[in-house]
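Quick start: read one record
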Amino acid sequence: MRRRLLALVLAALPLIALAADDPADAPDLPPRAQVIEALGSSPMVQAAGSVIEAEEARSRRLAAGNHEWTVRLTDQQRRVRATPDQRFNEWNVGVERALRLPGKGDLDRQLGAAGVASARISRGDALHEASRMLLSGWFDWLRERAAAEQWNRQREILARQAQVVGRRVELGDAPRLERLQADAALAQADAQLAQTFGRAEVAAEQLRRLYPALRLPTQLADVAPTPVDADAASWIRAILEHNHELGVARSESARARIQATRTDAERRPDPSVGVHMANDRGGEERIVGLTLSIPLPGEGRRADADMAIANAQASAYREAGVLRKVEAEAATLYRRATAAHSGWQSQKLAAEALGRSADLTERAWQLGEGSLSETLAARRLAHEARLAARLAQLDASESRYRLLLDAHRLWPLDKDDDDDHDHP
């Protein structure tokens, strides 16, 4: 009955075999084609793409300028007192437009281009963040599935021991206390198995909802983690070179500097020029003239310029802070990857040793040279060590993949970039 229940639980998980035809696919990662589809359909990435369109429109608006032609039309009737019966229809029509002073248009175009560049980098940042979330969710599910499979193996071992104890009790070769101990250990394993498979189902459901393009494998690949190259400096340089968060900070800082220059240029007001025509005294007088108006700059324009300069300085400080933060994160990520690999190797050796010890203890019990409680304790220690080693293996793989991801060597993280690297 329990085996049938276990089979049903496994069948309830999203199942199809993990494709491995693409050499860029790793056995313990989702296929690259599915990853690209999942990331491309992410609302976070799509929203960032819409921001690019908005910035492109804003760039066109800046290039066109804010000044537009203004038409003025006046129609009036004049009555002269000296001749009360004499009335004159008069009209006045004119057009005028403010003109950007030389240099302002070029600054506006630079400002628009900087906005588009910043939006494109922000899209890369959204894509990178979505990739991190996908990788983290994937390995969360792998850990839950691995734990469930390990508890399933432990339950099979305890079930076999319980059968042996039952036969020995029936034959009078073992006390009934050992049956109680064996049944209790089996019941505990059943409870842990149900809990771990429940958590695996929750993690799988979350992946299905967040990334409908992903297809989870029926069996987990047991892949030994690859050690990370020892050159920490090269990893840090690669991460800094491709880090989108730092790119966004730099682009915003450059944008703020251009904005400060543009705002300072507004301290020289743009003049307005126009031409007008008038018809007075019923056509007896015709007027053609030019108009020129220049706003007189005041303290407000100076305050705007000072504010823009302060904002540019703040952006520069934020850029420096992001650089320091990214450097620290890159170094930490590298150290974590190397430490995780060493930790997995130690856990693996411990699990192998405790597994052999558990086998010898069980063999001694079968020959009547030990107790069941000692056997169960040895099996529990071996199980815990194997579970810890399996989780450490996944932690080491995830840390390495995260390092590759941040260095742009795992998945393509920019639609417009050419740095489309595969993982080693």
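The domain at 2-13+51-406 is CATH 1.20.1600.10 (Outer membrane efflux proteins (OEP)).
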